[in-house]
Design brief:
Elements (H helix, E strand, L loop, with lengths): L5 E8 L1 H4 L8 E8 L22 H11 L2 E4 L5 H17 L5 E7 L2 E2 H13 L4 E10 L1 H7 L6 E3 L4 E4 L10 H26 L3 H7 L4 E3 L1 H7 L4 E2 L14
Helix pairs in contact: 3-4, 4-5, 6-7
């Protein structure tokens, strides 16, 4: 991808991660994900309570933000939080199609398939989706930031934006590795084309600029086309960024 590192991992679920008993069948899947190659700061995980569990303080905060049409992506993009974000986008669109939805992003990247579900839902719903970068918007975080409504993509003054080329590990037979590599290259091309579409840059420049890790200051991100405005106050954001 023009904005992330692809990692092809084989993930197995077990009773430690999903609460299944010892007799449960082990499930394995291949996931393609984007994440920075270097470690970064820890991010707060937005927790979606499952049926039968009580809501804690963090859950109440995120629920209260949702009432103000604010969605917060503050962790890696994974299936769990991507499903929640897609549902929140659909809910807010149904409640009031004429009001903006505000997506705040502080994310080091994550699963491509999960991120693409969010991306497609952002384009699918009728309300404009305002995106705001805070902290670190890298890889899939950068991609979702750039995918906001034209003219309504923002960065706070000390945010950082990272774009880099895909990389990953593969395993299995030679045929399996070839299939995985071809799929990764197709995904890389698709993501570069989408970033080019949203930034106004050429696909060739996106591919060249993402050959190595490339960090952008908010001003550089503005000049490149990742965002439309660098702001210091919510009053500078469309409809107050949900905080008015």
């Amino acid at each position: 991808m023009g904005g992330g590192t692809f990692l092809v991992n084989v993930v197995g679920t077990n009773d430690e991660t999903n609460g299944l008993d010892d007799q449960s069948e082990q499930v394995k899947e291949i996931t393609v994900s984007t994440r920075p190659e270097t470690s970064g700061p820890h991010f707060i995980q937005a927790h979606t309570p499952t049926p039968g569990t009580s809501m804690g303080l963090d859950d109440n905060v995120y629920s209260r933000l949702l009432r103000e049409r604010i969605i917060f992506l503050g962790s890696e993009v994974r299936d769990e939080n991507a499903n929640a974000i897609c549902a929140q986008l659909l809910l807010l669109a149904a409640e009031d199609p004429g009001r903006d939805i505000n997506l705040y992003i502080n994310s080091p990247g994550g699963s491509v398939s999960a991120g693409m579900a969010i991306y497609d839902t952002m384009q699918y719903v009728k309300p404009d989706v305002v995106t705001v970068a805070m902290g670190f918007a890298a890889s899939m975080g950068q991609f979702l930031l750039t995918a906001g409504a034209p003219g309504k993509r923002y960065a706070l003054p000390h945010a950082r934006i990272l774009m880099h080329q895909p990389s990953g590990g593969m395993g299995g037979s030679a045929s399996d590795i070839r299939i995985q590599a071809e799929a990764m290259l197709r995904t890389k091309k698709e993501m570069a084309e989408l970033i080019a579409h949203h930034t106004g840059q050429s696909v060739e420049r996106i591919e060249a600029d993402s050959d190595r890790d490339r960090y952008f200051t908010p001003q550089e991100a503005l000049e490149y086309g990742f965002v439309d405005h660098v702001v210091e106050s919510a009053s500078q954001v469309s409809q107050g960024g949900g905080t008015a």
